[in-house]
Amino acid sequence: MKNIKTVLILSLLMISVNVNAQMHGRNRRNLQKGKQRIESLKIAYLTEKLMLTTEEAQNFWPVYNKYEKLRNKESKEFRENCFFNNLDDDSINKLSDKEASILVDKFVIHSQKMLDINKMYHKELKTVLPVKKILLLYKYDREFKRKLLERIRDNRNKRNM
Predict the structure, then answer these.
(1) Which letter, b or e, does each residue of 42-55 get, where b requires 16 or more Cβ atoms within 10 Å of its Cβ?
(2) Span 42-52, average pLDDT
(3) What is the pLDDT of residue 10?
(4) Phi, psi of 145 (to 5 degrees)
(5) What burial letters (b/e) apply to 74-92, b meaning 16+ CB within 10 Å?
(6) Residues 6+ apart with CB under 8 A from 70
(7) How many CB atoms lie within 10 A of CB 64?
(8) pLDDT of residue 1
(9) How confident is the model at residue 4 (pLDDT cuts 50, 70, 90)?
(10) What is the spatial distance between Cα 9 and Cα 38, in angstroms, rounded to a whole number?
(11) Are the C-beta atoms of 52 and 133 separated by less than 8 Å?
(12) pLDDT of residue 25
């Protein structure tokens, strides 16, 4: 009887772990599909707005993709290694000055790395696009992000109604 209970408990535990893993995998795939969809929309949006010539597009997209990858990598590393975004005010107040200083320094270091990436990107962009198109790129890149955030906010509001 004891063996049957043990086998039953282990079986239920295994099923639970398997179902949880499948759900997590499904959520990860959905998240990945969502990211790919956003990237596709962004590429289409920028391509339309910038009116790139064939030659400009051939030179621009490899540069753009390279720097997007660098920025995403740095942002991901920062999110994974800097936990202060998850701290509430009370937890922050409980930190020692040394702990708080370390977190603030991590934030400034991240900001500097992002600035360095953007400076390299800007310099390289000047070799592949006319400066007026670079200015438009910056404008439309920000515009795309703003519209995306508005759309996300609107979708959340619709779901909460």
Answers:
(1) beebbeebbebeee
(2) 93
(3) 42
(4) -60, -40
(5) eeeebeeeeeeeeeeeeee
(6) 117, 121
(7) 21
(8) 53
(9) low
(10) 43
(11) yes
(12) 62
Predicted local confidence at residue 62, as pLDDT = 96
Residue 87, phi then psi, degrees to nearest 5:
-90, 135
Cα 120 off chain centre by: 20
Tokens of 140: 């439309």
In this structure, how many other beta carbons lie within 10 angstroms of the beta carbon of residue 118?
Answer: 13
Whether the CA torsion 125, 117, 73, 34 is positive or negative: it is negative
Type of residue at 156: R
What token pair was written down for 74? 């740095």
